[in-house]
Amino acid sequence: MKSFKEYIAYPYGLWMLIFIAVPLLVVIWFSFLSNPDFKAGIYTFTLENYQQLMDPVYLELLCRSFLYAVIATLICFLIAYPLGNLIVSLPGHRQNMMIVLMIIPMWVNFLLRTYAWMVLLSGSGLISQFFGLLGFRDVSLLYTQSAVILGMVYNFFPYMLLPIYTSLKKIDPDLLRAATDLGANHFQMFLKIKVPLSLPGIVSGCMMVFMPAVSTFVISNLLGGGKYMLIGNLIEQQFLTLNNWNFGSAISMVLMTIIFLVLGIARLITGKELDTGGQLL
């Protein structure tokens, strides 16, 4: 006889089938079609959509997207790891306050936060005025590569901080005290205790930043002014502007495949399957 837990799992399975499996199969199907005529029932299967992606122009977009995503992920890590260590060292109530402060910006709509940065980075914004006080005139970071990367870092930074903070908090303080008693210095404790034990959180955070960063299109549109087109912009263009769902589907499948490969590498690094949700508990 089936247990109650098995019965209540059926609605979730049906939900995943309807809203995940079926749409994914539709995207895969579209990626292998060439100018289908649905009214006449004519479907021509081809690999032309995937071959078109090998064009140097599209490969450049793909490489630029990965480069920006890697840079944003690295910057987030370099800021989040020391900050996570600092938060863990605080008393419990202050830790909670710091985490809340880091999460509060996420309560604001993604588009509103990005528009706010457009104002800050413009020629008349606060950042430009600050540089003006230092003697630099007509400084505007808006519509530059730096603005795009800055937007990625700002919007996705909490996804890096929270898993790292959780992993660092789970480290038993007795391990650090024992290492100190055995003569280990701060660098040795960091290298041989903190880094290995916090590695799942590091990898989880990197994946949670890298995946949305590599596929974003809103940030590059608003902060880049459309001058720095990324692979997400290309997908958006194919679906919404050019109405070329076949090529857009092929690009989406290639991007998803690459992301799955990166996740597989991350799993090999940590030695276990990453549970990005579980890392935040």
TrEMBL record:
It comes from the Bacteria. Signal peptide: none annotated. It holds the Pfam family BPD_transp_1. Residues 62-266 form the ABC transmembrane type-1 domain. It is found in: Cell membrane. InterPro entries: MetI-like, MetI-like_sf. The chain crosses the membrane at residues 12-32, 66-87, 99-120, 140-162, 197-219, 247-269. Keywords: Cell membrane, Membrane, Transmembrane, Transmembrane helix, Transport. This is ABC transporter permease. It comes from Acetobacterium wieringae. The lineage of its organism: Bacteria, Bacillati, Bacillota, Clostridia, Eubacteriales.
